[in-house]
Design brief:
With 287 residues, the chain is an alpha/beta fold. It has one domain: Protocatechuate 4,5-dioxygenase, Chain B (3-Layer(aba) Sandwich), CATH 3.40.830.10. The chain has eight helices and twelve strands. It has a six-stranded mixed beta sheet with strand order 7-2-8-1-12-9, with helices on both faces. The protein is globular and about 50 Å long.
Length: 287
């Protein structure tokens, strides 16, 4: 029998893959706290819960008619970002999949009538929200990436999460850390002024209203009040959270949905990335 032993929201913004001098130049002399102290704190939390499997909800992998997981046994290749090829280029990756968990998720979704595909093709495309997580945190863990279905509503994401929780239970010896790889509010500054807002300062988030609603969500996470976040979701959607906030909704669905009381521990500052809200948050989960 497997367990979900921890969960995190991971701010994957591409600047974390830049060399430190470039990051500091982008931050006007200040490095992003997503890298330090955020990454060491997150790795420490993963070590403490003895996770051996990552489930990564990838907000750049958009699907359309169904939820999809990358269920192959291994992924190898070379990746260049189509968005920022000068920042993430010729990145070589090689990591083990989690095929048994993918198969169990396929069975759980079939039983519950949730539309899902376990894609076992090893040549399936990989996106940088997955690779950025693995670049900093991977220590040989099995990895199952799950995309964000762009036609899904909140209940669809929560249903997939509930199926995932059941699949984990059915996977012997799996100690799963859920990682929602995505930002918070996610509106970029216009091209003519975007580089004027390239700092990590929260004052450069796209609007005071966007920053304020992100802070409301962070407050609810600190309190472990996930029902309040779900109640806020219709309003939050108007601020265009990354990936429709599907990475969080699937994560919390696997932790019990409205009944989840896992408190969020902020591991980095709340930061800006050219208009978007970024943060690392760890949720302590009883095994």
């Amino acid at each position: 029998m497997g367990d979900i032993v921890g969960a995190a929201i991971f701010g994957h913004q591409p600047a974390i893959m830049a060399p430190e001098p470039l990051r500091k130049a982008m931050g006007q002399g200040r490095d992003t706290t997503l890298v330090d102290p955020g990454i060491p704190r997150l790795r420490e939390a993963l070590d403490a819960c003895r996770a051996n499997t990552f489930v990564i909800f990838d907000t750049h992998w958009f699907t359309t008619i169904e939820h999809i997981a990358a269920g192959a046994a291994r992924f190898q290749g070379t990746y260049t970002s189509e968005e920022l090829p000068t920042l993430i280029t010729d990145y070589t990756y090689d990591y083990p999949g989690a095929p048994a968990l993918g198969e169990q998720l396929e069975g759980a979704t079939r039983e519950r009538g949730v539309r899902f595909l376990n894609a076992t093709n090893p040549h399936l495309g990989v996106h940088y929200p997955t690779l950025n997580v693995l670049h900093y945190l991977h220590r040989g863990e099995a990895v199952l990436s799950i995309g964000v279905c762009q036609t899904a509503e909140a209940h669809n994401f929560l249903d997939l999460g509930a199926c995932l929780a059941e699949a984990v239970k059915r996977t012997p010896d799996a100690r799963v850390a859920l990682i929602g790889s995505g930002g918070m509010t996610h509106t970029f500054w216009p091209m003519d002024v975007i580089l004027d807002h390239a700092s990590f300062r929260p004052e450069d988030v796209i609007s005071p209203a966007a920053r304020a609603i992100d802070e409301r969500v962070l407050g609810h996470w600190r309190d472990g009040d996930h029902a309040a976040v779900l109640d806020l979701y219709p309003e939050y959607r108007r601020f265009r959270p990354e990936g429709f906030f599907g990475h969080y909704l699937m994560l919390v669905g696997a932790l019990g949905g409205r009944d989840c009381r896992a408190r969020g521990r902020q591991l980095s500052d709340y930061e800006n990335a050219v208009g978007t809200g970024q943060v690392h948050v760890w949720f302590d989960v009883a095994g």
